[in-house]
Each structure stands twice: as C-alpha cells, then as structure tokens.
C-alpha cells in the first residue's frame, strides 16, 4: 500500500538549525561575525589582512578560513590573531556543519569580531546559511561588470557588497552603473563599499562600518559598558 | 559538487518523515527547486544513490519540479524572467527596481512511501 506523505520542508533545514545554534553561541558571547564570499582571487584574504592590520589595536579579532591548503591561514596567523582552518576537502562551500566545530575551537569570550573566509566560489556558498550576522560579497573590477546578472543568488544574499580593485578602473572597461543596476535589481539598498586593497582607497568606510556594527552588537548583547 | 552535502541533508529529512509514518520503503521524492537555487538534477540523483545506499530510501526516484526564476517590477508590478531584465530594466516601464517573485524554492514537497 503506497501513501504520499506531505513534507513541505526546506531541504537544508538541518543546516539551518545548526546555523541557528552557531548564531546563539556568537550572540551569547557578544561576537559579531561576518561571512566573506568571493570568486577565487577576488581579494578575500587581502581584505582580511588589511582589516586585521587596521583594527587589531582596537578590536579583538579572529578568523576562520575555509580552504584546502593552509596558505591563507598562515598569512593571517602571522598577524597574531587566532585563526582556525576548516579543511573543506575540495568542497565548494562552507556549511554550518563544518563551521560549528571551528567556532568551538575558539574562545568566543575573547573575540569582538569574527571573520569567516568562505571557499572561493560565487555559485553555491550563498545557499548554505552559517549563522553569521552579515554576508559580505566581494566583487572585483577585473571580474567584469556582468557578474550580478550571472550569479543572482550570491548577489541577492549579500548584506554588504565590496567592490575591490577599484584602481583597475583606470586600465579596464567596467560599466559601474550597469554593475550597480544589476545589484540593485536583486538587492535594493545593499551596503556598498567600492575600495582597493592595494592602494587603500575606500577602506576607511569599510572599517567604520565594522566598528559601528561591533559596537552595536556588543551593546545589544550585554557586553557593553553599562553605566 | 555541493550536491553531496545536499543529498546528505535530504536523506536525514526523508528518513525522519519516513520513520514517523512507519514506512517500509520510500519510492519517490517530490522536490521543488527554483531556478535561483544552484542544484543540478543529475548530480543530486548520482549522490543520492551513493548516500542513501542500504537505507529504506535507497531505491527512491527523485522527481524534480523546476520553477523558473521570475522578477517583479516594484514600479509597475509586471513580472518577467531574468533574461528579459538583463541590464535593460523592466521590459514594460524600464525601471530598475525589481524583486525576486519566484524561483527561489528549495524544498521537499512530499515523499511516496510503502507502509509497513
């Protein structure tokens, strides 16, 4: 006797439940966490290194890096902040199941800002919730201005869009307006930072955004200075 | 590539519902997948056969209902596909403010089981 059972559940509901668990732990410790996503070579590690350099004297930082080889981890660890490598074993994304053990290896009570570096890929990382507070997508000028039209899921899921390598505008055709229209279509009002990790142009606005987010998060999660 | 982790999560979801219903076997999964979800049917079927091996859902057939991606213009309300939009704005009023109206589904709608 066959029977149809109605399920009506999101396929990734198990991942979503773990993501909620991660979020609860971060919030309990007052940690603000971001998920950096980009295509390979988009500038994830460069942005992390710049950010750590600029903010480590005022904020307690840590990083989790999803990768197959520890090259980027070593670069970040050289900055004297705690770093955990999640060996993705060639997988194309981080999911909550991979992230949770890495979060557990950090002493969250000593961290203000946690930067998660996702696997370099624009296709699927956006489908897997991680429980972080902001999804940051890094695009870069050499990738071309048509990327929002080709990777709608990634651009739609972004809370913050960084457009890196702005110094390449001088040497490469890139229709900024066309690019922004594509982003706006999927994600109206997304926070946007055009910058260059090489020249340092535009980085201050990105740092300010992080500072204010960390401060807001701290005060809303019981770690602020009361009185 | 990520179809393998999707298959793993899908199996857990299927087995939970199948056990609740005291199923002897799972014959078919009815999946609803929108165009904006990056899932390849053949790849998911391939990993499913590997992941579900030796479970009561081992021989389940995966049935995909594909939902095309649609955008809705926030100014005039008309709906259109991503290819019509592509850099030109809304095909009717040329506005550039649009939201996704359909095509982001990624769910297991139902399973067909044999009762024990």
Description:
The complex is a heterodimer of chains A (227) and B (116). Chain A is of the alpha/beta class and 227 residues long. Chain A contains eight helices and eight strands. A seven-stranded parallel β-sheet of chain A has the order 4-3-5-2-6-7-8, sandwiched between helices. In chain A, helix 1 (13-29) runs parallel beside helix 4. The radius of gyration of chain A is 18 Å and the shape is globular. The mean pLDDT of chain A is 90. Chain B has 116 residues and is of the alpha+beta class. Chain B has a domain at 3-69 and 103-115: hypothetical protein PF0899 fold (2-Layer Sandwich). Helix content of chain B is 28%, strand content 35%. In chain B, the strands form two sheets. A three-stranded mixed β-sheet of chain B has the order 2-1-6. A three-stranded antiparallel β-sheet of chain B has the order 4-3-5. The radius of gyration of chain B is 18 Å and the shape is elongated. The two termini of chain B are 35 Å apart. The chains are: A alpha/beta (227), B alpha+beta (116). Chains A and B meet through strand 1, helix 1, helix 6 and helix 7 of A and helix 1, strand 1, strand 5 and strand 6 of B. Strand 1 of chain A pairs antiparallel with strand 6 of chain B, so a sheet runs across the interface.
